[in-house]
# Entry
Amino acid sequence: MKVKHIFEIAKALLLARSKQTLVAAIGVAFSVAFFVSLLGFMEGLNTLLDGLVLNRTPHIRLYNDIRPSDNQPIALDSTFKNYHHFIHSIKPANARKEIYQVETIFKRLKNDSRVIGVAPKLSAQVFYNLGNIELNGVVNGVEVGQESKLFKFQDYVFGGNAFDLENRSNSIILGQGIADKMQAKKGDLIQVTTIYGEQFSLKVVGFFQSGLVELDKVQSYVSLATCQKLLGESSNYMTDIQIKLYDMDKAPELAKEYAALFKIDAEDIQTANAQFETGSSARTIISFSVGIVLLIVAGFGIYNILNMMIYEKMDTIAILKATGFSGADVKKIFIAISLSIGLGGALLGALLGLLFSVAIDHIPFNSAAVPMVDTYPVDYGIQYYAIAVIFAVATTYFAGWFPSRKASVVDPVEIIRGK
Amino acid sequence: MLLIQWKSLEGNKMEKQIVLEAKSIYKSFHDPVKIDVLKDLSFTINRGEFVAITGRSGCGKSTLLYILSTMDSDYEGELWIDHELMAGKTEAELARVRNEKIGFIFQFHYLLNEFSVLKNVMLPGLKANKLSEQELEHNAYELLKKLGIEKLAMKMAYQVSGGEKQRIAIARAMINDPLILMCDEPTGNLDSKNTEIVFDIFSELVNTFNKTLLVVTHDQNFADNTQRNIIMEDGRIIS
Ligand SMILES: Nc1ncnc2c1ncn2[C@@H]1O[C@H](COP(=O)(O)OP(=O)(O)OP(=O)(O)O)[C@@H](O)[C@H]1O
Ligand SMILES: [Mg+2]
# Structure
């Protein structure tokens, strides 16, 4: 028996019941369509939300932590090894956050093939002056070129050009929240006071919207040089080195390596942002389960229709068997029916899912939190379509399996005698 | 009449070649009490024979035919078809025997309504998978032509009359050139004209094409015109 002829018989049986076939196929199609559009939407959101943080977080951050030395003098003397140490709450002796030998570290990292890029960063505690009220704040000094290349800095700057920070001395990009409070417009001069009590006038060249409202009430950006000026430090003073890697998963490992190599503190992104991974995977798991439940429900639809069809087609099965078709042949015919419904429905569903996704992609979505999108985000990843189609075909195969087995054991004598 | 002359041919059969042999077949149903339906049935059928089985309603004719056609394998005794013992064969092997060596014709024509007449005739051939689709189609068409119904080839099976259906069923039974044709009351649903047509076809199959036929019938006139009449009563052969 050729496969072609099995499918030919299956097709004839399907066409004889075209309405039920259509209903079953549409059931599968809708499940697949919902599956791909739901997952595409969820993943789109995931990428967007994770991007809010992950895009702007260095994979590894090098800095000097302020803490007491790990090797206290008492530990050096082996005589006291087994003694109880009464001295506690030891205070750090060196309060300097400055990273030494910045040039060397930069050179080494730039030659490292695992590193995409390196960006220096400085932070200064300030007070924003609002008449006689002082608001707490942080001013970050960044190198605009590197910061844009690695952390999409310019995506979050609006109402001005990010590079004006470098081109104009004493300029500032204000956080949106603080700008609203100060009612600052572009070109205005604002006053800040450093923790050392010095006052500076800075010219507003743009605004920064991170998507995290609390952060925008505090944080502003200036150039490295301006920040060094605010801190009263020289031009090679640097407190943070931000590293972006090709493979984010290697961050913990490399952080250790760099910490040892440069005798410095290194923090990897996984440690700094442990909660984000969990949020994303929870969302993904939920959408997957909903999708799979939909497909299983569609599978039950096929199961029902096949069972009904076998009931109606008892005579046909009996004749096929009387003329020499074996139980296995009959089983193949009904599996073919089931798979045809599954595959047809799945392909239709994939197409429908794509249309749904395009529709979602056109729904307006304006949120202060994410200034760079104006419609809902959708991930068109081919993998969701592949998973949905494969799973749909597998479900229909299993849905068809039991009815097919039933058909294969139909006793032709019983049917023929019953006539 | 045309039908009479076959009797005279009975004598001059060439060497006897056994096509089917039944050796003490017993069959009983257990529903709800044990009833023995077939009791110690033994007979042989030779190549080219035209055999009728008659007997009162309920004497076990159909039951016997289902066993002989390998559809029912739940019996005691031995069944040999083409010198092969049927006992111990798997369901798939029995299906193959049925497909290649036996043509079955029912009282109710039992065509597949989802297919055209031509496809109905071709289906057992597609299962056998020995000839290409074109060759099968050609053979099926030739068979329909011989039976005078080639005009119906492209019609759907439910669009033809009862008499025509029975002729289509004969064509289907013939498509794999079987060793033996078995029929359960093939004329039971036909008027006298169609009965005559079917009988003429059977006679031609036996005489011209040297086919073997085993026909269960209630029509005594039909049975009288075959070469041999097995008469059953209460699950036994009485003559
Ligand atoms: N599945 C079954 N369970 C129990 N008894 C059965 C079953 N099938 C048939 N019988 C009995 O077996 C006997 C023979 O039945 P069978 O159909 O072979 O008769 P038949 O000779 O073909 O009759 P008819 O000429 O009316 O077709 C009957 O008495 C019938 O009641
Ligand atoms: Mg009967």
Summary: The pocket of adenosine-5'-triphosphate (ligand 1) is lined by residues A 417; B 29, 31, 35, 37, 55, 57-63 (CB under 6 Å). Helices of chain B lie at 6-9, 61-68, 91-101, 117-128, 133-146, 162-174, 192-207, 220-224. Residues 1-14 of chain B have pLDDT under 50 and may be disordered. The interface with chain A takes residues 62, 66, 69, 71-72, 91-92, 95-96, 98-100, 102, 104, 106-108, 110-115, 119, 123-124, 126-129, 172, 176 of chain B (CB under 8 Å).
